[in-house]
Amino acid sequence: MIIHTPIFLKFPSQSGNNIFHYISLLSEFNETLNITNGNILFDCEDIQFIRPFGINLLSAMIFYHLQHGNKVLIKGTKDSSVHKYLLDQGFFQEFNIEQEHVTSMPRSTSVALRRLEGVDGTYLDNIANWLNFNGDIPLRVAQDLVSISLLEAINNVFDHSQSSIGCYISAQAYHKQNQLS
Known about the structure:
The chain is α/β, with parallel strands linked by helices. It contains six helices and eight strands, in the order E-E-H-E-E-H-E-H-H-E-H-H-E-E. The protein has a three-stranded parallel β-sheet. A three-stranded antiparallel β-sheet has the order 6-7-8, with helices on both faces. Helix 5 (121-134) packs across helix 6 (139-159). The longest helix has 21 residues, at 139-159. The termini are far apart. The mean pLDDT is 88.
């Protein structure tokens, strides 16, 4: 289906880890799955807070539409701290979006956004090291967590989901809340 009028997909202002915040967006996204050569506008203007789950979801949706020949437009957030976080997480770099007058500073508390097209052992080792450092988790335990949980989730993407886009990964340590996301 070719559509020339832009389709708007609005991200919630609180784009955290709760899937229920995304129900409306996911429903609207499902309605766009058969569109090719259309214009898709991701409206991120009102995002006031975003966690890695939100970045991964946004990235997967954008990649899907790019892969299906759609022109993707992004209406950026008005919140400068969210914009900086997206920049530091590698979101703009992932999609080759030029950002003038803003410097990216990778954060030691983050795992930058990355799209995987298969299992990458070196990348998973880096995540285990990151967990060890940021979660104050012994390295052997961090390696077990990655090999049991994250590796299983990644394998499920490639073995069962029939995903044409692979999967996106990013993470953040929240030391004040004693959380990893």
